Amino acid sequence: AFEQEYDGDRNAEGERHGYGKARLPNGDTYEGEYERGLRSGRGTYRFKSGALYTGNYLQNKKHGKGIFFYPDGSKYSGDWVDDQRQGHGEYVYANGDTYTGEWFNHKRHGHGVYVYKDSGSKYVGRWVNGIQEGPAEIIHLNHRFIGRFFNGKPLGRGKYVFDFGCEQHGEYIKLEQEKGEGEEEEEEEVPLPVEPTWKAIEITKLTPWTPKDEKPPPPREASLEAAAAAETGEEE
Asked: Compositional bias of type Basic and acidic residues: which residue ranges (predicted)?
């Protein structure tokens, strides 16, 4: 069905093999390397939507190093496994925020640094399935918070360290708040800075306390629909 628009090398069996250019029935285009009829090796895939991927393929899937430019102006540059963002990579969001760190199954997972462009604040710590969770530090302009996060919010004991040489110890108290389910989008969601309730306990001089590090739990099965939605148009 797609034979109408392919210009490139073929092997003895007539399969696309080597270097070629293809226009897909849905208007997407691919230029790059093929092996036995499938995109494999380096190539550039342009989506009709305006998105673009340039990087490595293995048997029609993004696999290896590659850069994906999303239609909203955001960009991911890093490792891919089986069409998913996985390994190490940097995501620059449409609003100018950046995340640099580990990915699993298309989501921020493992250790990473998220920089909020507007405030210049940084979250340095653990992520589980796209959500801030585990030991972390939030670094602001002239002070920082060290503690633990659960489900995207700081919770429990922690401390604020001020550049002028003192610390405020305390804990974050949880306030219940329901968040509605949004539509699954192709682009990554930007985490919002949250403001739970801080209860101060004491102020001391600087001390070396740090939250105990622990391995993140194994990844929960993240929904594959988001990934599927991202690449609806790719050549079968």
From this structure: 7-18
Domain region containing 47 = 1-75
DSSP three-state, residue 191: coil
Mean pLDDT taken over the chain? 86
Full-model pTM:
0.79
The answer to the question of residue 12 being in a domain is yes
Whole-number Å distance between alpha carbons of 51 and 36: 26
Give residues with Cβ within 8 angstroms of 144, minimum separation 6.
137, 138, 160, 161
Beta-carbon neighbour count of residue 136 at 10 Å? 22
Whether 160 shows a pLDDT value over 50: the answer reads yes
- Amino acid 176: pLDDT: 59
- Backbone CA torsion sign across 192, 85, 103, 161: negative
Tally of CA atoms within 13 A in the half-sphere of 77 that contains its CB? 7
CB 76 within 8 A of CB 87: no
H helix runs in the chain, sequence order:
225-230
- Quote the tokens at residue 23: 């226009």
Question: What is the rounded radius of gyration, in angstroms, for the C-alpha atoms of the chain?
Answer: 22
Tell me if 55 is assigned to some domain.
Answer: yes
Provide DSSP, 122-162: EEEEEEETTEEEEEEEEE-SSEEEEEEEETTEE-EEEEEEE
